[in-house]
Amino acid sequence: MAANVNPVDIKPDVKKTVNHFDSFKVALAKVLTDKNVIELATVFNYPPAIKEELGTAASAGRLMVLHMEERGQIDQTSILTLLCALKKMDLFGIEKRVRKLYEEHTGILCPSDDHSKAQIEEKKNKFTKYSRIAYQKQYGTAKPFPSMNEGSVHNIFVEGGIYYVAQKGDSKQNPDVLESLESYNEILSSPKTKSKRKIIEGEPGYGKSTIGLQYLHDWCTKNPTSPLKDVKILIYLQLRQLVGVKSIYTAIKNFIVPKDETWMKLAFRKSSEYTKSLLS
Fold it and tell me: Global pTM?
């Protein structure tokens, strides 16, 4: 399948048919040694089961190529993620060889580092714009109860009693020790709740989803009192949206950005490298 490529990005001296991405993948698999594969899997934070599979595979390079393509780390239009990983591993010789192979097999020039960062910044800004549009629709039509009329969450949300587990209990005789938080913002900002993963629990109708929508409102409106005010990218997905969805990229594409935005996968997977603040 031919990619949509700008003519100015095609090398004029390419001898092979443009966009032979499949032949590039074959060549790439031959370049990557077993050691390279395991190092790449570590850089990409692959789970232990996949790393073990790669370590025992008869053709680790070929299997690694399949995993990278599946995760969007290489595709017909870009291998920037792979090139950055090879540089991070100080494998500059292999990075140069892989870059040359990609250009020869596909006819697409790999941009310079500065150009790549500029492209990612532009696409990251587009992603943020589309996120705000999607989230505004969600928090603007909040309906906590079936009997209520739809309205902006900002007009519906009411601060209630919020408690955090100060000490985990081990039985009914020694239950969890709960202490109160002054505001819903403290769920994200208080040293008492410092953690990379926050779980909000409560009975149906207690406002868990409403708090989530209020966070969206605060981020979209750049509320100066919100702990989200400096967050560049906010990803909000509901669990019911993820049924049967195997990829985070697919979920984002389905529920946040327009379906015709083919650049989204690249922009998202590279954003963490150039963005200091990303919340999901």
Answer: 0.63
- For the chain of 280 residues, list the mean pLDDT of each consecutive stretch of 10: 40 51 95 96 92 94 94 87 92 95 91 71 85 93 81 86 87 86 92 87 88 95 94 89 80 80 52 46
Is the Cβ–Cβ distance between 124 and 271 less than 8 Å? Answer: yes
147 and 213 belong to one structural domain: yes
89 and 146 together in one domain? no
Question: CB–CB of 40/31 below 8 Å?
Answer: no
Q: 172 lies in a domain?
A: no
The boundaries of the domain holding residue 51 are 7-110
Compute CA distances 132 → 145, 204, 230, 252, whole Å.
Answer: 24, 27, 15, 13
Q: Which of 81, 110, 139 is the last residue of a domain?
A: 110
In the block, tokens 């097999």 appear at 105
